[in-house]
Amino acid sequence: MPSLHLPYVNIALDTFALVVVLVLLTSCLHEVSQKKSGARRFLFYQISVAVALIADIIAWIGEGNPSLAVMTLSANTVMACACRIAIIGLMSYLVASLYAHSRAAAGVLDIFILLCGLSIVFCIGNAFCSYAFCISETGHYVHTENSAAGAVYLLYPLLAFFVTLLMALFARSSAKPNRLAFLLYILFPVAGFVIDFHFHGISLTCSGFAISILIIYTSIYIKQQKELEAQKNALMLSQINPHFIYNTLSTIAAMCDASPKQAKYLTIDFSKYLRQNINSLSSEALIPFEQEMEHVACYLKIEKSRFRERLNVIYSIQCKDFQVPPLAVQPIVENAVKHGVTKKAEGGTIKICTYEEERCYVIEIIDDGVGFDAEAAELHVGLQNVKNRIAAACHGNLTVKSTMGIGTRVIIEIPRKRGKRK
């Protein structure tokens, strides 16, 4: 294999890449502090790449110096392990972003994580057995000829294979731009490895990861944050509903003479409702489902005071120990009241239920209102806004099923955190 000796060039490339990664990493810390799903995966990927770059810089500093052979070998081992951990972070983030609701994609990812774990074990073992690479007596990094080296070097071809497999399995369920972007994100790390493997003395794998991070940040991450900001603004406008406020105040005023005690309780519920609205609009962090249900209950008490026997509510809460984005359920319930059951002269019933599945928590809001043609009509603006926010905030999903004259069923799926089971 051709051999190059460019330690200072490699150090310069790695240092520049490290600065880029650290700048992007710093900009993402705020999103993690807000407990946004997806931000943690991306941050994990960035930290892994930063560790790999630092280790690679240390390895090149010791390159060619026999007295630093132990440091060079240790740094190369850390770099190799960090690269594999970075690959896990990259694949985890991309699968969660592009194939969040596919069990098959999650299964492929689990197999890939297992293979990466085995490769990391081989990399650590290499530090003691030198079956893949070693540091020569002159202090230089050297590839060794050993059949066990395949466990270390085959990882990147396997990465390309698994990406191809994902593309083949889920081509129909993913938009073409997403599929092309998926390939682009892994192209540079794989290309860097191929160049490194065939030209000893040059290091581009870690820089390839840094380019991948930069592309993801500009094409996915920033786009998601802009969408969240736009959705937040739309949510703020939708929640400041002057008609609802006017109707509620009118109801309270009418009760003051006939039923002062009931007016008092309704005023308390209304104040709780407004406070929760304001808190939800000022915070982007996920909240406990129970907190969201308190908001829903306040809203339904207010509407129940207006519509009385025309509005019935049934709760079937089988699980509640999970988190949701603020205003994930209340707008859907409000939509069911305003555009569903109260559109019928005799009114109707809204049922709110939750239950657990293997990979997600499920929330269903069901009404027997007027319904609509879900295939012919686009989602109501409020439902579409909630759908987008759930997807961006926690990689959840919202599905609407409706039949004219029968009613509407809205299903929200909130993914479980990895490793959390019943």
Write up this protein.
Helix 2 (39-62) packs antiparallel against helix 3. It is built from 13 helices and 9 strands. It is of the alpha+beta class and 422 residues long. The strands form 3 sheets. The protein has a 5-stranded mixed β-sheet, with helices on one face. 64% of the residues lie in helices and 12% in strands. It is elongated and about 95 Å long.
Mean pLDDT: 79
Rg: 28 Å
Query: Structural class, from helix and strand content?
Result: alpha+beta
- The run of helices and strands is HHHHEEHHHHHHEHEEHEEHEE
C-alpha geometry: elongated
Major sheet description: 5 strands, mixed
Low-pLDDT segments, ≥5 res: none
Describe the structure using short key phrases.
422 residues, alpha+beta, 5-stranded mixed β-sheet, two-stranded antiparallel sheet, 9 strands, elongated
Give a summary of the structure in a few sentences:
With 422 residues, the protein is α+β, with helices and mostly antiparallel strands.
Tell me the layout of helices and strands:
Blueprint: H1 7-33, H2 39-62, H3 69-98, H4 103-129, E1 133-135, E2 141-143, H5 150-153, H6 155-169, H7 176-198, H8 205-239, H9 242-258, H10 260-282, E3 287-288, H11 289-307, E4 311-317, E5 323-324, H12 330-339, E6 348-356, E7 360-367, H13 381-394, E8 397-403, E9 407-415
Parallel strand pairs: 4-6
Antiparallel strand pairs: 1-2, 3-5, 6-7, 7-9, 8-9
